[in-house]
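I have been asked to look over a protein record a colleague put together. What it holds is a sequence and that sequence's fold in token form. Please read both lines and tell me whether the tokens look consistent with the sequence. I do not need a full report, just your reasoning and any doubts. This is what I was given:
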Amino acid sequence: MTDTVTTDPPVTTDPPVTSRPDRPPRKRSGGPVRWALRLIVIGYLFLLIIWPTALVAQATFARGVGPVLDALSQPEVIFAFQLSVSVSFWAVLINTVFGVGISLLLVRTRFPGRRLLSALIDLPLSVSPVVVGLALLLAYGGRTGWFGPLLENVGIQVIYAPLGIILATTFISLPLVVREIVPVLTELGTDSEQAARSLGASPLQTFARITLPAIRWALLYGIVLSLARSLGEFGAVKIVSGGVALRTQTATLLVEERYQQFGVANTTTAYTAAFVLALTAVVALIIVALLRPSHGSERS
């Protein structure tokens, strides 16, 4: 009779779990400094932007709503805003088409002078609009301009005409669309486009189905900024338009002309036009603020 010895399986013991005591939250250093900086920034924006804009609104409705409606019903005011909207529409359309093309050229191709072209696009942001107006006057003036006499011989007037206002406004707002699209195209890369082309898609189909949907939020963002910039342009338009009422007077020129005249009615008209322009800019900023989250989520 033999005894069988049974051995228990080895018991594996896990290492003891040591629980770390909860660390106390770190105290943020410089709290009062941060609040002081925030108050300084808010105060700066209030004194520079919010308060003057509020004063314009207060001066607009100082005599009630009736004078404001009377000012908006004047033929000169209606024509000025119609001209501003028309000029802004064509300027934004031109900058949208050429802005997308220039962005694709800068990001997707390599050629001599690429950096110079990129620097020239930012020229309207660094040059005074008055200089832009003078440059257009020297180039397209009817008597002494380089191309003006030739164009007027075939019946095309540029200076002191809506066409000159469109050129000046287009020049001023040129970089806004390009500078919104270029970073998105750079981050997007070319993998999707190359895959579409390898599957037989034409360049137009690749742009319509791959590139354009990827940049649509940046494009819309640039369009809104370009529209707001075009509606508020003054310096270059002042030089090339002449500011003739019911002919070449935009809304910004109307504000200047009526404000310089005597009489409460003229002052009210100037404040009313300025308030409409300011309200348009605020609406554009709200649209831009609403587009930013969508743009970020689209890229992620």
Notes: The first helix runs from residue 31 to 60. The mean pLDDT is 86. The CA atoms of residues 139 and 146 lie 5 Å apart. The chain has 14 helices and no strands.
